[in-house]
Amino acid sequence: MKILITGASGNVGTGVLQALPPEHDIRLSDIAPPSSTSSTRAWFPADVREAHALDEAAQGVDIIVHTPAYHGIHMGAFSEKAFYDLNVTGTFEMFQTAVRQNVRRVVWLSSMSFFGDDFYAYTKKLGEQLCEFYNRKHGIEVIMPRPADFTPFRSRAHYGERLLHGGVDRRDVIQAVVKATTCEQSFGAYHIVREDRFTEADVAAYEQGKRLETWEKLYPGAAAIIEKYNFHMPESIHPAELTREKQELGYAPTYNFGTFIEEFTQDNTVIEVNS
Fold first, then answer.
1. In whole angstroms, what is the distance from residue 47 CA to residue 45 CA?
2. SS3 state of residue 144
3. Looking at residue 34, what is its pLDDT?
4. What are phi and psi of 192, to 5 degrees?
5. Structure pTM?
6. What percent of the chain is predicted at pLDDT more than 70?
7. Distance of CA 59 to CAs 44, 64, 101, 117, 214, Å?
8. Which domains are delineated in the chain?
């Protein structure tokens, strides 16, 4: 297949490029310069906010993986107009190109922030409405992964603490996006979140105040790390419902606080990159 990755220099774009099977003909586009990992791929400099900017890159393409966006962490650093221009206008112009170039499928990176009430969430709602329109009106297949927070972390300890809350590992996001290129569904939004296999008894114990004990039961070694680094624990826990994601998308969530302990701790100490 011929696949165009937009936002190819970004956090998701670089990961998807590395994860896609090598037999695909992959094209890359971004307003930012290419990374070293993309040096052997066809590169098309483009600003997705501009009309026709992606036309050349999308010629003969089967799938567009569209990733450019400002995220929640950019709130305050960029204006609402900047958010709208990139997240909404950029999506509109991409779909206009997809129609002109007869692109079969678009994988559009949404967000669990879709359910929020800030301006970033609003742009994701508008983006998903555009996805629905171009699927219904023009027959373009559109798969919309909605990842939880996977923005770059300040430290490994920060990454670990985030896995107690709404965080999801970037690697799980990448595998979901890659699977969205080949799943049998022609339209749908999918929650790309972490899976903690809490039981009903675990939830009840947590509500009774046994928070540390509950994390330790699920992930042995968790209590020592949480206490040593004074990690804030969430007020409540809710096992994720991922039946659709697993059956339709093939999503296989792998990373959680337990894998964090295995990968990045030793003797109850977080192993930082420079340690």
1. 7
2. strand
3. 80
4. -105, 90
5. 0.95
6. 98
7. 12, 11, 6, 37, 53
8. 2-156+167-192 (3.40.50.720)
